[in-house]
Amino acid sequence: MDPHLLRTFLAVAETGSFSAAARDLRYTQSAVSQHVAALEADLGTPLFTRRPVALTPAGDRLRRHAAILLVRLEAARADVTRAVAPPGRLVLGLTPLAWAAPVATALATIRAESARLHTRLRVADHHRVVEAVATGEIDLGLVDGFTAPSDPLRLPEPGAGSRSLGVAESPAVVAVPTSHPLARRTAVDLADLADAYWIDAPEVAPFTRLPIDGLRAGLRYDGADASVLAGLVAGGHGLAVLPLPLVASHPGLAGVPVGAPRLVHRVELLRLETVADDPAERLAALLSAAT
């Protein structure tokens, strides 16, 4: 199957419209229709009903495979490119709360070992980091989340071709202003805070991922700066579950340990197979040794 046709097919499936897919892809609507028709002819079955536009059972099956197929094609291209690229490049992608002391120490070590190492850091959400690792767009990914002690993170697809390694774990606390009545508590159950106002920060620490129902957002923060989120909590705009090191570093915050459910903040390293002398492999080895 032609990957260009698969990309067009996915655009139509995601938007539910031939015209919307054409706008997103910067094609004409006629070109989109021709791409879908060519793919249907190749597979010998309709992939969409036309009025209204909806996936057929065959189209729904193809959609499950298409995104992963395209990611693996990009990964193959990146792997070949990396094999012939000059050494000395390290691109690290991370979610906003994934930066941890072991990572900073390991990165400082390899940069000291190679003064000419060209290093780039990119901050993005979980889906973007996982996908960028799978396609080889970045060399290593660092993702974070809140989970039960010693449990791995539940990562979004496509991540099947990646390996993960836990590199840091710290207590999860409910962040409150230092003047808040809860600041004097030794522990708090999240279920007891169902009536409190929370800050929903989808790019940093979304409260919707916490393993408790009934929490409600009083404010939504769409940025990716953890220090802004900490400042919003300190200003009394709502609560957030955050890693203890971040809360401890902010003078206006207090961290109340989560009594139930038991939670920790976990950081995991994602990577594909790399060659032995690659800077990414060296960083992964240092982080593995530090755990």
TrEMBL record:
<protein>
    <submittedName>
        <fullName>LysR family transcriptional regulator</fullName>
    </submittedName>
</protein>
<dbReference type="Pfam" id="PF03466">
    <property type="entry name" value="LysR_substrate"/>
</dbReference>
<dbReference type="InterPro" id="IPR000847">
    <property type="entry name" value="LysR_HTH_N"/>
</dbReference>
<keyword id="KW-0804">Transcription</keyword>
<dbReference type="InterPro" id="IPR036388">
    <property type="entry name" value="WH-like_DNA-bd_sf"/>
</dbReference>
<feature type="domain" description="HTH lysR-type">
    <location>
        <begin position="1"/>
        <end position="56"/>
    </location>
</feature>
<dbReference type="InterPro" id="IPR036390">
    <property type="entry name" value="WH_DNA-bd_sf"/>
</dbReference>
<dbReference type="InterPro" id="IPR005119">
    <property type="entry name" value="LysR_subst-bd"/>
</dbReference>
<keyword id="KW-0238">DNA-binding</keyword>
<dbReference type="Pfam" id="PF00126">
    <property type="entry name" value="HTH_1"/>
</dbReference>
<keyword id="KW-0805">Transcription regulation</keyword>
<comment type="similarity">
    <text>Belongs to the LysR transcriptional regulatory family.</text>
</comment>
